[in-house]
Write a structure and sequence with these properties.
single chain; alpha+beta; 3 domains; four-stranded antiparallel beta sheet; 9 helices
Length: about 350
């Protein structure tokens, strides 16, 4: 295992030789230089004391002897030297508490980032020091011609700790339909929009937000903006009359066979996803893409090319309004646990 302490001491010696060439006076008795050297040694002690290997521990012990020699040179009086050490202990304790506070704050911030779907974002004490607000940029590709760019807004609270106040999400599209759609999302304890939902909203699809009685669909109106430049939000509460599960039951979907598959499908649609599903047509199956459309109390259907289609087109025939099946067909019960099948009417 390499000796990290020795490597850093070598860096200091390189710096010391360079200074010796630059200045005519001797560094051995220069108080400013000796204080800086002592400060550098203390930093190394604090950095490696708790995680030093056997070779590094020996180097640290040798370094402490040189520290004591420099302290005697700087402060020959015993009482002054003792006072100096007491002062260092007080400063070290205060500095340690501050470092722990910043470390805990950074850990909390990174956890809040992860909950919203952001990747690991490196932060350090220097970034948070002496600021009341700061912006952290994040960007990644979401498709061949699509990129999501985020600006995380951090704000300092009354107790000095930073928290995630909100973020601006921007969807950049190139090629056909190129442009940028941007929206600010507030972060609070209950109703947060994660990164995937933000992408779906900026793509024009609705998502479900809120809990209990406040649970509702929301969708961005790209034809209207508020005074801050954000798109206005259309909200559709339960009283509006859109029942997603009822609409799904009207379709002969393979994904509705088991409770687990049904829950996964509903969750995806609630998050604004376009979900690929299987239509059962007798002994044939056809893949289509679904998305929720609460505004018109319906479901949008797309073929494999991404073209919007009707249910009749999806089933390749005229649909009976009562059964949603092709005319001349009816549902057979089939065996328990098996798919139901279509038989000709007599």
């Amino acid at each position: 295992m390499e000796n990290r302490v020795e490597n850093e001491l070598d860096e200091w010696l390189t710096r010391e030789r360079r200074f010796q060439k630059l200045f005519s006076f001797s560094l051995d008795n220069n108080r400013a230089f000796l204080r800086e050297k002592l400060r550098y040694y203390r930093t190394l002690q604090a950095k490696y004391r708790a995680r030093a290997g056997p070779k590094e521990q020996l180097t640290l012990r040798m370094m402490r002897q040189e520290q004591r020699a420099i302290e005697k040179q700087l402060y020959p009086n015993l009482w002054v030297r003792l006072g100096y050490k007491v002062l260092l202990d007080i400063i070290g304790t205060s500095s340690g508490k501050e470092q722990k506070r910043y470390t805990a704050n950074i850990r909390d911030l990174q956890e809040s980032f992860r909950k919203l779907g952001f990747p690991d974002i490196p932060l350090d004490k220097q970034q948070l020091a002496d600021r009341q607000k700061m912006t952290v940029p994040v960007s990644y590709e979401v498709g061949e011609n699509k990129r999501m760019a985020f600006e995380l807004q951090l704000k300092q609270g009354d107790k000095g700790q930073f928290y995630l106040e909100g973020y601006t999400a921007a969807l950049h599209e190139t090629g056909a339909g190129s442009g940028v759609k941007k929206q600010y999302f507030q972060v609070d304890r209950e109703n947060n929009i994660n990164t995937r939902q933000a992408y779906n909203l900026l793509s024009g699809r609705p998502v479900v937000q809120g809990n209990g009685e406040n649970r509702h669909w929301m969708q961005l109106d790209f034809n209207d903006r508020d005074p801050h430049g954000n798109y206005r939000v259309k909200r559709f509460y339960p009283g509006y009359g859109f029942d997603l599960e009822k609409k799904l039951r009207e379709l002969p979907l393979k994904e509705l066979r088991t409770p687990e598959e049904r829950r996964k499908l509903i969750k995806a649609l609630h998050n604004g996803e376009q979900k690929e599903v299987t239509l059962i047509q007798g002994y044939k199956q056809q893949r289509i893409i679904l998305e929720a459309n609460p505004r018109f109390k319906s479901l949008n259907l797309y073929n494999g090319k991404g073209e919007k289609i009707s249910l009749a087109q999806a089933l390749n025939g005229k649909i009976s309004k009562r059964t949603r099946l092709k005319k001349g067909k009816r549902l057979g019960k089939g065996r328990p646990g098996k798919d139901r099948f279509l038989v000709k009417r007599r």
